[in-house]
Write a structure and sequence with these properties.
It is elongated, with a radius of gyration of 31 Å. The longest helix is centred in the N-terminal third of the chain and has 37 residues. It has 18 helices and six strands. The strands form three sheets. A two-stranded antiparallel sheet has the order 1-2. It has a two-stranded parallel sheet with strand order 3-4. It has 459 residues and is mainly α. Bound molecules: arginine (ARG). The site of arginine has 10 residues, from helix 6. Arginine binds next to helix 6.
Length: 459
């Protein structure tokens, strides 16, 4: 049998393999609510413009509501022969209301229909991501507020560099997720134009009101070029690009959680709720959630790449290739949402080991820069000379297997005669951290001020 929606000029139906490669219903059924919402707005506008009878528009709206109910209750039968969500819904509408169903597709094509459905889905997703990012930032700020004074090593090259506070470290991620959130709101603003009414590609001869449908669907305005309307998916790519950057930030935090929760570091203990055990090694507490967040970032970036590559060679306007947009976007956004949720959960639950962090903060000559700075500030040495003197002192400490603060004054003076015992005051971790008062630095006062700023902004 040829297709009842478009089969007029066809003698036979598609081969089984054609149906298999062509059908998108297995994944685009996810767009049912957006599809029905778009169709209701379209039908109402058609009636208002006198393009279809009011009575038919009413029947169409009632039928569409009934279909929504069927899909949500699980009684709707999806058919692969009907290809996609658009034709599944319209075909069922015909079963329910008869002839008026055929008027719904006036002045519309599946090309603008899918473009509007998918935009509505991406827009909802961006709204959800924004809320999830806000939630994660709040979780980080709560933990940072508890740890404005908790010292830990700051790393470069994963080598102990200078002591920082745990609160400062967590607040670094708040800044990252804040930029992520602004990318999400930017993307939403840019994509919030309605393609409905572009029809197949050229617009329509019917006197439609695109401003009315745009407004009914919560868009800022209709798109201005019909060819562009049905042929670009940059709104999905932009959401996935912003999503990929979020995923990278989440992955870096996840990697730190993996490192911190190892027995060797022991900086944090993950809650039972976010760890798993090993079936053979009873001592293990594996940070699986963090590892999966790290892994899923690869998948999310991969999804974005896949769609970019699908799009890059397509001539205007709609090409069937673009049907491959949805699975990538669904997969990326849904996994990202899961990662945001899991990360917020881990942050809320994790128990920092303050003593372990403090001990590590003081090891590895982490206050060597403070010593060099002291030589500059108190003895007036040029920084390069101070660096050299400090390097010698670190060498002595390292040879003897002791900390800088354990080098006797006489031995320090042998390296530079001007050194006095006031130098020991800058060699403690607390002194080091408290002295970093430059704007954006790690001093507890600074961190407390940043925490306050974000508490005010996040409400
Ligand atoms: N299932 C299609 C998609 O996802 C809908 C649009 C089909 N349009 C067409 N002219 N075949 O892209």
């Amino acid at each position: 049998m040829s297709n009842r929606m478009w089969g007029g000029r066809f003698k036979t139906g598609p081969s089984a393999i054609m149906e298999e490669i062509n059908a998108s219903i297995d994944f685009d059924r996810k767009l049912y609510a957006q599809d029905i919402k778009g169709s209701k707005a379209h039908a109402a506008m058609l009636a208002k413009q006198g393009i279809i009878p009011e009575d038919d528009a009413r029947k169409i709206a009632e039928g569409l509501d009934a279909i929504k109910g069927e899909i949500e209750s699980g009684s709707f039968t999806f058919s692969r022969a009907l290809e996609d969500i658009h034709m599944n819904v319209e075909s069922r509408l015909k079963d329910i209301i008869g002839t008026p169903a055929g008027r719904l597709h006036t002045a519309r094509s599946r090309n603008d229909q899918v473009a509007v459905d998918f935009r509505l889905w991406v827009r909802d997703s961006l709204d959800h991501l924004e809320a999830q990012l806000t939630d994660l930032m709040k979780a980080l700020v709560v933990r940072a507020a508890e740890h404005t004074h908790t010292v830990m090593p700051g790393f470069t090259h994963l080598q102990s560099a200078q002591p920082v506070t745990f609160g400062h470290h967590l607040m670094a991620y708040v800044e990252m997720f804040a930029r992520d959130r602004s990318r999400v709101t930017d993307a939403r603003k840019r994509m919030n134009e309605c393609p409905l009414g572009a029809a197949a590609l050229a617009g329509t001869s019917f006197p439609i009101d695109r401003h009315a449908t745009a407004e009914a669907l919560g868009f800022d305005r209709p798109t201005a070029n019909s060819l562009d309307s049905v042929s670009d998916r940059d709104f999905a790519l932009e959401a996935m690009a912003a999503g990929s950057i979020i995923a990278i930030h989440l992955s870096r935090l996840a990697e730190e959680i993996v490192i911190w929760s190892s027995a060797q570091f022991g900086f944090v203990r993950l809650s039972d709720a976010f760890s798993t055990g090993s079936s053979i090694m009873p001592q293990k507490r594996n940070p699986d959630a963090a590892e999966l967040v790290r892994a899923k970032s690869g998948r999310i970036i991969g999804d974005m790449n896949a769609l970019m590559i699908v799009m890059k060679g397509l001539p205007l306007t709609y090409q069937k290739d673009m049907q491959e947009d949805k699975e990538q976007a669904f997969d990326a956004i849904e996994n990202l949402s899961l990662c945001l949720e899991a990360t917020a959960g881990m942050i809320r639950d994790m128990a920092p080991n303050v003593e372990r962090m403090a001990a590590a903060a003081g090891s590895g000559y982490a206050t060597a820069t403070d010593l060099a700075d002291w030589l500059v500030r108190v003895l007036g040495l040029p920084f390069r000379d101070a660096h050299h003197v400090t390097g010698k002192l670190v060498g002595i400490a390292s040879e003897r297997g002791i900390e800088l603060a354990d080098i006797p004054l006489a031995d320090m003076q042998a390296v530079h005669a001007g050194i006095t015992d006031a130098v020991y005051g800058v060699l403690t971790v607390q002194a080091s951290v408290s002295s970093r008062k430059s704007y954006g630095g790690t001093s507890p006062d600074n961190v407390a001020a940043q925490v306050k700023r974000w508490q005010d902004m996040l409400g």
